[in-house]
Amino acid sequence: MSGFLETIVAHVEGVVEKSKAGVPLAEMRRRGEAVRVVRPFREALEAKPVAVIAEVKRASPSKGDIALDLDAAKTARLYEEGGAAALSVLTEGTFFKGSLADLQAARATVSLPVLRKEFIVDPYQLYETAAAGADAVLLIARILEPSQLGDFMALASELHLETLVEVFDEADIDKVTPFAPPLVGINNRNLASFDTDTTRAGRLGALLPSGTTVVAASGIKDATDIRRHLDAGISSFLVGESLVRAKDTVGMLKELVSSE
């Protein structure tokens, strides 16, 4: 891991320990295993020629504060109106200024499936994710050992959470291949340098098994970026900062999803 990732993972591990002190694992497990209505995530992406996972995002380490006063529910409604296939909600509180409350508010106001975007490093967080009502959860290959990745995917499945497994390079792909994740996100941004290369997803996507639903993430700003990925065989996209900063969120989303 890069220094940045090491820092954030160490911080998140500390947050998890504090959460366990407040709500013990046994209780969080009980909440996470409770029956709930789940919205199909991958199916929602596959149903659209151009599928955008629109992200509720307040800040990031690379861009700083983006929209600290963002209203998660209002933003989610705009995303649904614009034709998003699904939502992503950043819940990490220190570096991204998000929360599980944002996720719950967003999901309560729309009919779209919702992904929890978080640095998942402990099974406790998966129970927490299900308890909060998420439909899917991000697992970042780079911050997990292979055994953890397999265990987390299995536990998520038991909790009726779909997993979006994020990779960045060939080494990550080698790590995740034995687990055959049906949904793989390719991050165009290098989390060590924050450099973005929007050709990365297309190159790496070609290395994944046929039938994998590939999501291109980071650096998607306009219809040109969408079409570049479509030419590489990728039709699902995670878009955050560009939508949050857009003056006309609904109009921008409609333009993106009609970029065939």
Automatic annotation (TrEMBL):
Keywords: Amino-acid biosynthesis, Aromatic amino acid biosynthesis, Decarboxylase, Lyase, Tryptophan biosynthesis. Residues 5-256 form the Indole-3-glycerol phosphate synthase domain. Pfam families: IGPS. The gene is trpC. Its EC number is 4.1.1.48. Belongs to the TrpC family. CDD domains: IGPS. InterPro entries: Aldolase_TIM, Indole-3-glycerol_P_synth, Indole-3-glycerol_P_synth_dom, Indole-3-GlycerolPSynthase_CS, RibuloseP-bd_barrel. This is Indole-3-glycerol phosphate synthase.
